[in-house]
Design goal:
Layout lengths: L4 H10 L6 E2 L4 H7 L10 E2 L8 H12 L4 E5 L3 H8 L4 E5 L17 H11 L2 E3 L3 H9 L13 H9 L9 E5 L8 H16 L4 E5 L4 H6 L9 E4 L4 H9 L3 E4 L2 H9 L4
Parallel strand pairs: 1-2, 3-4, 4-5, 6-7, 6-9, 7-8
């Protein structure tokens, strides 16, 4: 939602009609996306909840998307892959060419790396956030004339909302949600954060907890610490304003890492 918002504004400025599709994995988060663009409140609901098996979800989503003449997808999620599997006449990939260059191609992180490589093979055109991303597509044999370097739309949206500032609060902002962190890893990270909070009483640790049940279960033991606040998910604009003045950020989110770097936060 964040990274597509600048594209929706440009479509509207040029008078192009568009329709937003929502897989309905996190309908509770969709309402907050309307603060980015009113079109999110009018999204077409595909009603394909994720049951935990990403490939079963992909197959169900592809059927729900059905035939589309033009389809824009962003990133590397199962939703993106499912949209591509619906085989639209023209597929456009925002944030194309991202690769980890891990020793085991397509496997790290799994299945996201596989999803973005496959979507890159099927997309007729797209937008690369960096020259490095475009080079990956070139090395894989794609016609890169259709994949210009546009910069990162997530940072476009960030600067649409806030600007970098030297003012810093005592807040340490936390976001953790990635699938590969679930289970003992996330519990261990939570314990590490609890230790940090205990040894840095002058700092306020703020953690908007992702609605994923695996994440919710892992943080249950952390309630009751005076300088660690566990919050409900925040709407994007409020989160960005909190991020802009944070003392530090602890995150496993690629998007938040990009935003923090663009705001000069460690």
């Amino acid at each position: 939602a964040v990274k597509l918002a600048p594209i929706l504004r440009e479509f509207r400025r040029r008078g192009h009609a568009f329709r937003l599709l929502c897989s309905d994995q996190h309908t509770d988060l969709l309402a907050s996306a309307a603060t980015l663009d009113p079109a999110y409140a009018e999204a077409e609901h595909l009603r394909v909840p994720n049951t935990g098996d990403p490939f079963q979800f992909v197959a169900r989503l592809a059927r729900a998307v059905g035939h589309r003449e033009h389809l824009i997808v962003q990133g590397d999620t199962a939703t993106v892959f499912g949209g591509a599997c619906a085989q639209p006449d023209f597929l456009y990939h925002v944030e194309a060419g991202v690769r980890t260059n891990a020793p085991q191609p397509w496997m790290n992180p799994w299945p996201e790396e596989m999803f973005r490589v496959a979507v890159g093979c099927w997309a007729q055109a797209g937008a690369c956030a960096s020259p490095n991303n475009r080079r990956h597509l070139q090395d894989e044999g794609h016609a890169i004339e259709s994949f210009p370097v546009t910069g990162n739309p997530g940072i476009d949206q960030l600067y649409h909302t806030v600007q970098p500032t030297s003012h810093r609060t005592n807040t340490v902002l936390i976001t953790l949600h990635r699938r590969e962190s679930h289970g003992p890893y996330l519990r261990a990270i939570g314990q590490g954060i609890a230790s940090l909070a205990a040894s840095h009483a002058h700092l306020s640790f703020v953690w908007p907890v992702h609605p994923n049940p695996h994440v919710q279960q892992s943080v249950r033991e952390l309630h009751g610490m005076p300088n660690l606040r566990l919050l409900q998910p925040m709407e994007p604009t409020a989160f960005i304003h909190l991020l802009a003045t944070a003392h530090a950020v602890i995150t496993d989110s690629g998007g938040v890492q990009e935003e923090a770097a663009a705001l000069g936060i460690h």
